[in-house]
Amino acid sequence: MYGKGILKGLGVTFKRFWDTYFDDIVWLFRKGKRYHSPEGIAHRSSKDTRGIFTIQYPEEKLPVPEEFRYTPFLVYEEGENGEKELRCTACGICSKACPPQCIWIVRASDPETGKPLKTPAEFFIDIDVCMNCGMCAEFCPFDAIRMDHDYELSVYNRANNIHNLERLAKPVSYYAEIRPINYGKEMAVKQAKEAAKASKAD
């Protein structure tokens, strides 16, 4: 029969159209609003939703999964007096492992003796060149570099996307907030190592 395929296609379109507005009306009567909230967006992103859903970006944003990675950042511990203690030892492994070679590190040196110190004096990442592969974080032996969730980095001036040490450094609390499962695993491993050291000392 001629036109059968067209009618079938129109039926699929109409079903999607109906499902979309039906879900919106149900959500409106149940919650009193049309999914313009984190809870509503989470529902619309789940397998339980029906129809088609359009995110009204930037007012609405899809929640990113924990393993989402965008640009690297440096993790620092917060000392007792509020000073920043970077985990980074300026070993340079991340810059060597980086495929597009977008990481530059300058190691700090002792002003009196001139000997190199285990901390970076300068640390730069060219975000425009970074391919977000995560190899720098994967190869870092001190868990000093991690992948961020912040993807809104558009700028008018290209030079503003070369991030320096001050801009890259973020506290452990931030890392624990965006990656709670990974942070929990790291803390469990750290505690196990400390317990093993304590038992050997006894």
Structural class designation: alpha+beta
Extended strand count: 7
Largest sheet: 4 strands, mixed
Distance between the termini: 86 Å
Poorly predicted ranges (pLDDT <50, ≥5 residues)? none
Put the structure in a nutshell.
The chain is 39% helix and 18% strand. It is of the alpha+beta class. The chain folds into 2 domains: 10-63, no CATH class; 72-201, 2-Layer Sandwich (Alpha-Beta Plaits).
Tell me about this structure.
The chain is of the alpha+beta class and 202 residues long. It is 39% helix and 18% strand. The protein is built from seven helices and seven strands. Strands 1, 2, 5 and 7 form a four-stranded mixed sheet that branches. Strands 3-4-6 form a three-stranded antiparallel sheet. The longest helix has 28 residues. The protein is elongated and about 85 Å long. The N and C termini lie far apart (86 Å).
Strands, helices and their partners?
Layout: H1 4-31, H2 38-45, E1 72-78, E2 84-86, H3 93-97, E3 103-109, E4 116-126, H4 135-139, E5 145-147, E6 162-163, H5 165-168, E7 169-171, H6 172-178, H7 180-201
Parallel strand pairs: 1-7
Antiparallel strand pairs: 1-2, 1-5, 3-4, 4-6
Helix pairs in contact: 6-7
List keywords for this structure.
single chain; about 200 residues; alpha+beta; Alpha-Beta Plaits; 4-stranded mixed sheet; 3-stranded antiparallel sheet; 7 helices
